[in-house]
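User: I'm new to structure prediction. If I give you an amino acid sequence, what do you actually give back? Let's try with this one:
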Amino acid sequence: MLDDTIQSLFSSQILRPKEVIVSIVKEEHATEKTRATPNVRVVLSPKQGSSAQRNTAMSLITTPYTLFLDDDVELASNYIESMELLLGSLKDVVAATGFIVADGAQGDTGLDRNFARSLTANYIRASEDSDHYEAYGCNLFVRTSVFSSIRFDENLPLYGWLEDYDFATNCLKHGKIILNAGTCVAHLATPTGRTSGLKFGYSQIINPLYLWKKNDKPSLFRVIFHHWVLSTARNLRRTLFSIPSDRDDRTGRFRGNVLAFGDLLKGRIDPTRILRF
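Assistant: Good question. You get back a string of structure tokens that encode the predicted 3D arrangement of the chain. For your 277 residues, that looks like this:
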């Protein structure tokens, strides 16, 4: 999966990346093919988790712009070119994200990579760029200068649920975030190598409240309704009525939800508790 994303970056982008930094926690997580690719640097992060691994890579970046990617995305061929033009022309913009032409995380089966490539290749712009208040971590294009004052919150461990939302909240203190409709990305949402259902379910409840206490965002209404009520209801429904195409451990997620609510009743709001499960 990582090999496919890296090869696609160098083979399909009109404007190729100057360097790709792959941040991993174990040597075996990067193949020889990845290591042998020109302009790819593999680094070891001292901690596991998306926030810590991204912070490790951030300390090594020397280019004026940085693109954060998951290993399961496909970008339109003009993605990097379009993003550089956008941030180069709008000095008050500190970050941008591409139009999500398809997101496998919103369904039960994910996306096939070849299908995702066809979607990005045939993308036709249908709207104007717009101010955005979130930034999807699977494709986050950032002005590198903000790293002097912004880091990903390592108190959101492992999968780092909502770490991109928190990063965007902090970016907005320095300028605008733009949804760039001139380019797009397809997110495959591959389930392999992800956090267990129990840990993710716990993070679904604890992380948004932790962020609300930290920055007053998301709003308390959104924490309760969107992150608590809807997430728990979906997990309970799929626990009681599972479907063959569902790749996620919904029973584990629901158990994590219940465990998190129990901790909230005890006054415990600690996202890192999943490291002790």
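You can read the tokens as a compact description of the fold. Here is one thing that stands out. The chain is about 40% helix and 20% strand.
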